Amino acid sequence: MEADALVRAFGHRRAVNGLSFALDAGECLAVFGPNGAGKTTLLRVLAGLLRPTQGRAIVSGVPLPGGPEARRRIGFISHASMLYAALTARENVELAARLFGVPDPRAATARVLDAMRMTPRADTPVRALSRGMQQRVSIARAMVHDPHVVLLDEPFTGLDASGAAALSNALGVLRGSGAALVLVTHNLDEGLALATHAAIMTGGAFVRYEPRAAIDPRAYAESYRNLVALDA
Amino acid sequence: MPDTLGAALLIARKDLAIEFRTRTAFFSAVVFALLAIVIFFFAWDPTAVAASDLAPGVLWVIFTFSGLLGLHRSFGVEMADRALDGLLGAPVPRHAIYLGKAMANLVFVLAIEVIAVPAVALFYDMPLGGAKSVAALAALMILAAIGLVAVGTLFAAMSVNTRLGELMLPMLSLPFFVPIVIPAAQTTARLLAGRPVSESIGWLKILVAFDLVFVAACTMAFPHTIED
User: Fold this and answer.
1) What is the pTM of this model?
2) Which letter, b or e, does each residue of A75-106 get, where b requires 16 or more Cβ atoms within 10 Å of its Cβ?
3) pLDDT tens track for B160-200
4) DSSP labels for B31-61?
5) pLDDT per position as a tens digit, B216-225
6) Domains detected in chain A
7) Do B88 and A49 touch (CB under 8 A)?
């Protein structure tokens, strides 16, 4: 995945302002930032849901927002569950599998629900699931087609220890199979644990962007607090 | 990846499954239709207006407004928990989403028609005539429903993100329903009056023409209404 001078404006306000980065297969970019920094807008542009105002983003050689070929490579886990409350967990995930053209949608659905430890509740309507369980189903829905790029917006929010462990395992498997991840979070520990690159975003721009190996977590946390305080 | 028709069928089946389980829009629409029939019936003076003059108007007022209930709901379910993002992020053509929604809405409107037409015939003591008239009436209902759904689905997508979306949908849709409702009501009046089907062929051709234009135009316009 590659972003080059990416801009997304709403009227005169630039929610994403000239971002550039590149991720190879298996790499993970953790993006930290305060509310309103433009993190979710960045993910929505990378998911092909918002058209860039300027610049470009490319997934596996296909420019975004692109057509079906670009969207097929992306998995998106958002704040909202993107699930239908009246359908069961299995029906929601299987619908996504069929829309993404997964060869054996039933088997793929069973596999990802099992990976997220949701098999016992697979046939429960989503509206009857707790928020954390809905989040697990949402994650399963985003991973059922084995995406090349996974975009995660605060994916650990609402998950209990078991759900968080299942998500970490699933993300590990995806990275092992060559998927690149972009993870947006407020939680430095969670983000740095997964990241190969980290960025701090304020006002739509990266004010810090570096490889994880160059980061001292304690100094980074201090720097993050200072930058967020300045931005506020 | 599914082709356009395959994706549309998946989306239509999903919408119908949701409606079948919740039944919120369908029950609301049926109750509205039956109440409207009863109200029109008790407000009707049979010595002043013949049943054959009133019934077609009652029928199409009911279809228009009860259909709007389903049309609004069709995109309402997508906005809860931003399920629409899931559809937009899927590798299917945008117009497959429109066609799937329109197919589900068509089933919804036809189901209301199946209940409302016999109810109107019963209340206004309208003979539905022979097999030929019934077949012509069924064809009319399907043709008119296609036109209403084609326009209504597009405007439902446009209005769902606006403030006062429930008000915006009828305001946007009703002017475009007029070219469909006029030939539909004219044909219904002739068929319910027992006139030969050949007298209605001209109106039916107009409906077919509107359907072709509206389905093609709305399918092409839909991607522009949902892309940001």
Assistant:
1) 0.90
2) bbbbebbbbbbbbbbbbbbbbbbbbbbbeebe
3) 878 777 788 889 999 999 999 999 999 998 888 888 888 88
4) HHHHHHHHHHHHH--TTTS-HHHHHHHHHHH
5) 999 999 998 8
6) 1-73+147-161+178-232 (3.40.50.300), 84-146 (no CATH)
7) yes
Specify burial of residue A186 (Cβ count, 10 A radius: 0-12, 13-18, 19+).
middle
pLDDT confidence bin for A231, thresholds 50/70/90: low
CB B226 within 8 A of CB B157: yes
ipTM: 0.88
Instruction: Find which of B5, B81, B84 to mutate to test the A interface (most A CBs within 10 Å of its CB).
Output: B81
pLDDT recorded at residue B192 = 82
What does the alpha-carbon distance between residue B51 and residue B38 come to, in Å, rounded to a whole number? 14
| Environment class of B4 (CB within 10 Å of its CB; exposed 0-12, middle 13-18, buried 19+) | middle
Cα A36 from Cα B27, distance rounded (Å): 42
Q: What digits encode the pLDDT tens for the residues A19-76?
A: 999 999 999 999 999 888 999 999 999 998 899 999 999 888 888 877 888 888 999 9
Count the helix, strand and coil residues of chain A and give each as a percent rounded to the nearest 5.
Answer: 40, 25, 35
**A172 close contact with B: CB closer than 8 A:** no
CB contact under 8 A, B1 and A72: yes
